[in-house]
Structure formats: C-alpha cells, structure tokens
Description:
Strand content: 25-35%
Helix content: 25-40%
Low-confidence stretches: none
Number of domains: 1
Mean pLDDT: 95
Oligomer: single chain
Strand order of the largest sheet: 1-4-2-3
CATH class: Alpha Beta
CATH architecture: 2-Layer Sandwich
Number of helices: 3
Order of helices and strands: EHEHHEE
Amino acid sequence: MVLFIADQVGWDERHLFHSEDLVPQFDQALKNTLAILKEAGGGPEHICCTTCFCTDKKQFVEPRKELGNVWKHLMGKNFPVMSMIFVSDLLASKSLIEIESTAVLAES
Length: 108
C-alpha cells in the first residue's frame, strides 16, 4: 500500500500553534505525519520520500543541528529521499513549515 500524507504543519490536533519558531513547528509537523502513518499501520521506516515547504530560509539554515536532532529522535536512522523548497507563504498563516510524505507499507 502506498500512503500519501500531505499538509502537515506545526499545529496540534486543535489546529493551535504553540510556537512561532521553526524547530518546534518542524517537530510537531513531523509528529503529525508519524501519527497518521501509525494509524495506517506504519512507522518512520516506511517513509520513502519527504518534501518540506519552508517560508524562512534563515530559520532553516541557522538551527540545522537542532532540526537534525528532531529528525533523529523521531525518524531514527531512516533517511528517505528529501527535498526542501522555500516558499513565500503557506495556507496555514502562522506556519513556517509544511511536510508532505510518501510511505510504502507491506500488503497485509
């Protein structure tokens, strides 16, 4: 089964942002992605492709080590094909980052 997960931003289940900084938003957006994947019976190891859309290149470049730590904590040693695209705006107005991912799960 191929699972496409899109439009994951750094808000909680009530659509509330708890930070205006990129690292916490990235952490929450990735957690949201993994929660959807878990509902489908998958885990981080099933993600084969991820695209991130970011509105602030400086906020992405400066804390790269922190972003890497978030990735390592949530994704382990899974490094799918990844792209980072810088955009002027996202639909969720307070969002600095949006994640879309493709996962491949074994047929049951």
